[in-house]
Automatic annotation (TrEMBL):
Superkingdom in the source lineage: Bacteria
Record-annotated Signal transduction histidine kinase subgroup 2 dimerisation and phosphoacceptor domain positions: 304-373
Annotated ranges, domain Histidine kinase/HSP90-like ATPase: 394-450
UniProt GO MF annotations: ATP binding; protein histidine kinase activity
Membrane topology recorded in Swiss-Prot or TrEMBL: Multi-pass membrane protein
Key words, A-Z: ATP-binding, Cell membrane, Kinase, Membrane, Nucleotide-binding, Phosphoprotein, Transferase, Transmembrane, Transmembrane helix
Cross-referenced InterPro entries: dCache_1, HATPase_C_sf, HATPase_dom, Sig_transdc_His_kin_sub2_dim/P
Name of the protein this chain belongs to: histidine kinase
Upper taxonomic lineage: Bacteria, Pseudomonadati, Pseudomonadota, Alphaproteobacteria, Hyphomicrobiales
Length: 485
């Protein structure tokens, strides 16, 4: 009996370690995705900064500075940008705590100065506020000569936000290291810069495989963890996630104790029955944890997809602003992208499979439109507590964008203060009635029926399985009966 129980406990322990390893590699993949995104947005922003500077790397004019600010849209709030001349003088920065210091001895300046086009720093201690940061820099050239560097730095606290989203056991960590062994960032934070070239990750594991797991003692805090790692494609970086075993093993030994207390008093006569019960509980627990891991992974990837889509839409908005297009056309395209970006922002912050709440969703679409057009109209929202299915959110957002934009463009052309009412109320047969009404000067709908906005309205209402009408009654009243769930 005791041999059987011992074998079961051993197997249970091995399975516990296997589940921890699966969590570590899944977390490392998530760190890899986010690290790739950080590098991508940094490269794009640095490239757009270089383009905005044109021939002269001195952002003196208001137009050039405005183009630089547009190039930085989409970066995390904590990111800071700098433009440094070849002489080491900072010409431009978004850092509110900036002080004029010489950074020519920093690798992110000296390496591009020696000819490297793009450079990723190791972990740095900021000389301005003592915080831990890492930076990306790009060499600036004019006429083939070195003209300075453009730099974007990220606070290591950015990795803390990622660690929180992974929901790992307490004591777990996430890190980014360079392929030369230098630590780029870690959370919880290390004491300072570290050279990890002699750690087993670089001496044993990376030479054999770009992705994997292993058990080791952390060189940072000397704690035992299961480590998952993954090389980030097209970069010199390695994503690392270390899962703490303490809480997992505590649960394991509590379970073992409960089983032993049940089996020992029973005796040899109930050995087979006890073993059967333990096996059944083990399999059920294993299946439940597998389902929970799968759900956590799916939720993480769902949110990550919407986060990446939102960031890509914002990047497209920034590119559109840089195009030589008529102001009205550029604004219309920008607002359509903003409406779609708002949809993905809502989905990123909500449960992966829960419907969206209509009141907050409609407000997030309509209120920025009124602000963007600087309209004097008073906005009134009358939104019932209706659930909006994920598949219906984007067409509803684009429909609201087009109808409200028409009202803001045509209803109050003289600058008079009017009223714009947006209503969404349930009707029979599971449908909802969307109503947008203004008390402006009105317009003839047939005059704009062939424009892009009207084509979009027709297409979006069709996607919502509805029909619409528009009347001029002391202004314009738009009505659409649509299906939202």
């Amino acid at each position: 009996m005791f041999f059987v129980v011992g074998a079961l406990i051993f197997q249970w322990h091995k399975d516990t370690e296997s589940r921890a390893a699966a969590s570590a590699i899944a977390a490392a993949q998530a760190v890899k995705i986010n690290t790739g995104w950080i590098v991508e947005v940094a490269e794009q922003a640095l490239h757009r900064m270089d383009l905005a500077l044109e021939a002269n790397p001195t952002p003196g004019s208001g137009e050039t500075q405005s183009q630089i600010e547009e190039a930085l849209e989409g970066l995390p709030v904590s990111a800071k940008a700098y433009i440094v001349s070849a002489a080491g003088r900072t010409l431009y920065t978004t850092d509110p705590g900036f002080a004029d210091i010489d950074i020519r001895d920093r690798d992110y300046f000296s390496v591009p100065a020696s000819g490297e086009p793009f450079y990723t720093s190791s972990l740095l201690i900021s000389r301005l506020d003592g915080s831990q940061i890492f930076a990306f820099s790009q060499r600036l050239e004019r006429g083939g000569d070195f003209a300075g560097v453009a730099v974007i730095s990220f606070d290591v606290d950015l990795l803390g936000e990622l660690l929180d989203s992974l929901a790992l056991d307490p004591g777990s960590t996430v890190s980014i290291v360079r392929e030369d062994g230098m630590l780029v960032g870690r959370f919880p934070k290390a004491e300072g810069p570290m050279d990890l070239r002699e750690h087993v990750l670089f001496t044993d594991h990376l030479p054999r495989a770009e992705t994997g797991t292993y058990a080791a003692i952390s060189p940072v805090d000397q704690k035992a963890r299961i480590i998952g790692y993954a090389a980030v494609p097209d970069t010199s970086l390695i994503a690392v996630a270390s899962v703490s075993m303490s809480e997992t093993l505590d649960r394991f030994w509590r379970g073992v104790g409960a089983v032993l207390l049940l089996i020992i008093p029973v005796g040899l006569g109930l050995t087979l029955a006890a073993v059967g019960i333990v096996r059944l509980l083990f399999k059920d627990n294993q299946r439940r944890e597998e389902l929970e891991r799968a759900l956590e992974t799916n939720t993480l990837m769902f949110r990550e997809i919407h986060h990446r889509v939102k960031n890509n839409l914002q990047s497209m908005q920034s590119l559109i602003r840089m195009q030589d297009l008529p102001r009205d056309v550029k604004r219309d395209i920008h607002l359509r992208f903003a409406a779609m970006s708002s949809v993905h922002e809502h989905m990123y912050h909500h449960d992966a499979y829960a419907a969206l709440e209509a009141s907050a969703f409609v407000a997030s679409i309509v209120e920025p439109l009124v602000e963007a057009y600087g309209s004097p109209a008073i906005l009134e929202l009358d939104i019932a507590p209706i659930a909006i299915d994920h598949d219906r959110a984007t067409p509803l957002a684009l429909l609201l964008n087009e109808v409200v934009t028409n009202a803001l463009k045509h209803a109050f052309v003289g600058g008079e203060q009017g009223k714009l009412i947006v209503s969404l109320q349930p009707v029979t047969d599971g449908k909802a009635l969307l109503k947008v009404a203004d008390n402006g000067v009105g317009y003839r709908p047939e005059e704009i029926v062939q424009r892009m906005g009207s084509k979009l309205i027709n297409a979006m209402v069709m996607q919502l399985d509805g029909q619409w009408s528009q009347d001029v009654q002391n202004g314009v009243v738009f009505k659409a009966e649509v299906t939202l769930n």
